Amino acid sequence: MNDNDASEPLVEHPKKHRPSKLMLYEVDSTLEIGSSIAMGFLVLLTSGKEGRYNPDAAKHKKSSCCAGGTLPDTSEHTTEGNEVEKASAEELSLAFASLTDGNMIDACFGINPMGGSRYDDASKYATQSSKTAKETLRNAADGNDDVKRLAVEAYVKCFRTVVDYNDEIVSLNFVSFCFKSQKLREDAEKKLIDSFEDLYDALRSNA
Q1: CA-CA 20 to 30 A from 171: which of 41, 128, 162, 183?
Q2: Could you tell me the sign of the dihedral formed by the alpha carbons of 110, 205, 158, 186, in that order?
Q3: Who contacts 35 (Cβ-Cβ below 8 Å, separation ≥6)?
Q4: CB burial of residue 194 (10 Å; 0-12, 13-18, 19+)
Q5: Which of 41, 30, 35, 42 is nearest to 63 (CA)?
Q6: What pairs with residue 111 in β-bridges?
Q7: Confidence (pLDDT) at 83
Q8: Which residue has better confidence, 1 or 131?
Q9: Cβ neighbours of residue 72 under 8 Å, at least 6 residues apart?
């Protein structure tokens, strides 16, 4: 991360989806989140539903978040329905509060959930960016459950992308890493953009 002004976006979303340079995550910091941390965030955002073992899933894959462990394949796990759409009003409020009052968004800007920042020289930038994102979401969601739901859905998709990206990277050997890592990275960045598209639309409408 460099010393860009806190208002300058590092992740370029299509302008029609990004209100006034608002950042909801920083791509490098987000993709550096460990899978175990991302899975913990998913548990909080889905009231414990995300990441549970699914006995009906036909496919399983090794996960970077658990040594020698497995998680249901993402496509199999999500075909049963969107956990966020099924959430009760109370569950949705708790999930949204974990975004605006917790450390999930902090992690998406490089602020270590365990304390401190991975980028000491940019901690002020990261802290301000995270604070702005939280305040924007909090204000936009005041009396608007649709924004709450879109925010939770966006970060659920975001952290799923992080876990999938980490799993794909750790599965590469030295040779395949040289040829495939860049493509995996580009795909992950595109998925992150898609994850936040609806939320940016909603925030732009409320701006």
Answers
A1: 41
A2: negative
A3: 63, 64, 65, 162, 163, 166, 167
A4: middle
A5: 35
A6: 117
A7: 63
A8: 131
A9: 53, 54, 57, 59, 60
End-to-end distance of the chain based on CA atoms, in angstroms? 28
The neighbour count for residue 207, using CB atoms within 10 Å, is 10
Cross-strand bridge partners of residue 71:
61
Query: Collapsing DSSP states into helix, strand and coil, what is residue 89?
Result: helix
Residue 47 to residue 40: CA distance in whole angstroms:
11
What pLDDT is recorded for position 82? 62
Buried b (16+ CB within 10 A) or exposed e, 175-185: eeeeeeeeebb
Name the residue with tokens 């175990």: 36
Dihedral sign, Cα of residue 41, residue 153, residue 87, residue 131: positive
The residue with greater pLDDT, 70 or 66, is: 66
Bridge-partner residues for 117, per DSSP? 111
Q: Spell out where the chain has E strands.
A: 60-62, 70-72
In sequence order, the 6+-apart residues with CB closer than 8 A to the CB of 190 are none
CA angle (74 as vertex; 42, 178 as ends), nearest 5: 100
SS3 81: coil
Q: Rounded CA gap, 100 and 104, in Å?
A: 8
Residue 2 has pLDDT above 70, yes or no: no
